[in-house]
Amino acid sequence: MEDNQNRLDHHADIEGTTLFDGKMAMKGYALNKMCFSFNGGAAREEYRADPEAYFNKFNLNDEQKAACRNKNVLEMIAAGGNVYYLAKFAGIYGLNMQDIGAQQTGLTLEEFRAKLQRAGE
C-alpha cells in the first residue's frame, strides 16, 4: 500500500496535472453525470434552453457551476471533471480537442495548432 501511495504522490508533482483518482471521482460525480447526459440530444437541448436549471437538476456545487459558466476545462477538471465526460460538454459549444488542448496549455488555438505541427515534424 505504501509503495502505491508513493507512486501516486510522485504524479502529484507534475506541474499542471490533476490526478483523477477516487477522491476526484467522488468530487466530480455530479458534474460528470451531467456531462454524460449529453449523449442524448434531448438533454443537450434542455441544457441549452436553461443551463442554470440543468446545473441544479444534477446538483452541481458552486465551483462546478462557475467552471461550466466559464466554459473552462481546467476549472472543470479541478472541480472533479473527467476529461472524457468534459469532451461531451465542450461539444455543445462546438469545441474540439484542440480547443481544449489550447485551454490546458494557456495558448491560443493558433499557437496550440502550431505547437502540434512542430511536434509532428
What does this structure look like?
With 121 residues, the chain is mostly helical. The protein has a domain at 21-93: Orthogonal Bundle (Protocatechuate 4,5-dioxygenase, Chain A). 71% of the residues lie in helices and 0% in strands. The protein contains ten helices and no strands. The model has no long low-confidence stretch (mean pLDDT 86).
Short description:
Helices cover 71% and strands 0% of the residues.
- The secondary structure category is mainly alpha
Count of discrete alpha- or pi-helical segments spanning 4 or more residues: 10
Overall geometry: globular
Radius of gyration: 16 Å
Helix content: over 70%
- What is the name of the CATH topology of the domain at 21-93? Protocatechuate 4,5-dioxygenase, Chain A
- The CATH architecture category of the domain at 21-93 equals Orthogonal Bundle
In terms of DSSP E residues, the strand content is under 5%
Biggest sheet overview: none
- CATH-wise, what's the superfamily of the domain at 21-93? Dioxygenase LigAB, LigA subunit
Low-pLDDT sequence parts: none
Arithmetic mean pLDDT: 86
